[in-house]
């Protein structure tokens, strides 16, 4: 269970790996300075530093946040009562539009993987 602004959300039992590392690093005496120094040492030794591809993932999980019609699944051709209140913005990828609140993300959309195939039977 975790809290955001005092509101409790129960998504799973236990800690995630990221939470464990966030909690464990200070307890082991690994501060930000130590981690940055280790990164600088690896950069100074080019034989040890291997170029890697980005392996990051950002999941937007908004409890009661903006709907898909206002963010990444715009329906500009839908009737006014169904489409969102925000205007669509063209992205760097032809055929993909996002809500006007994501104007900066629209400029780097070629680097973003957009998943629209998630389906469930709830609701």
Helices and strands in order:
Layout: E1 2-4, E2 7-9, H1 17-27, H2 32-44, E3 88-90, E4 97-99, H3 103-106
Antiparallel strand pairs: 1-2, 3-4
**Which percent bin holds the helix content?**
10-25%
SS strand fraction: 5-15%
Strand order of the largest sheet: 1-2
Structural shape: extended
Structural class: alpha+beta
What is the typical, i.e. mean, pLDDT?
Answer: 72
Describe the structure.
The protein is extended, with a radius of gyration of 20 Å. The longest helix is centred in the N-terminal third of the chain and has 13 residues, at about 30-45. Strands 1-2 form a two-stranded antiparallel sheet. It has helices at about 15-25, 30-45, 105, and strands at about 1-5, 5-10, 90, 95-100. It has two domains: about 1-45, no CATH class; about 50-123, no CATH class. With about 120 residues, it is α+β, with helices and mostly antiparallel strands. The protein has three helices and four strands; from the N terminus they run ββααββα. The mean pLDDT is about 70.
């Amino acid at each position: 269970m975790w809290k955001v602004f005092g509101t409790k959300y129960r998504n799973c039992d236990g800690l995630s790996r990221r939470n464990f590392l966030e909690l464990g690093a200070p307890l082991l005496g690994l501060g930000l300075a130590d981690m940055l120094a280790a990164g600088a040492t690896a950069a100074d030794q080019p034989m040890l530093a291997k170029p890697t591809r980005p392996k990051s993932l950002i999941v937007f999980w908004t409890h009661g946040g903006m709907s898909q019609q206002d963010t990444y699944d715009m329906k500009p051709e839908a009737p006014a009562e169904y489409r969102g209140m925000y205007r669509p913005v063209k992205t760097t990828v032809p055929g993909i539009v996002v809500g006007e609140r994501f104007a900066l993300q629209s400029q780097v959309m070629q680097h973003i993987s957009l998943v629209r195939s998630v389906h469930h039977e709830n609701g």
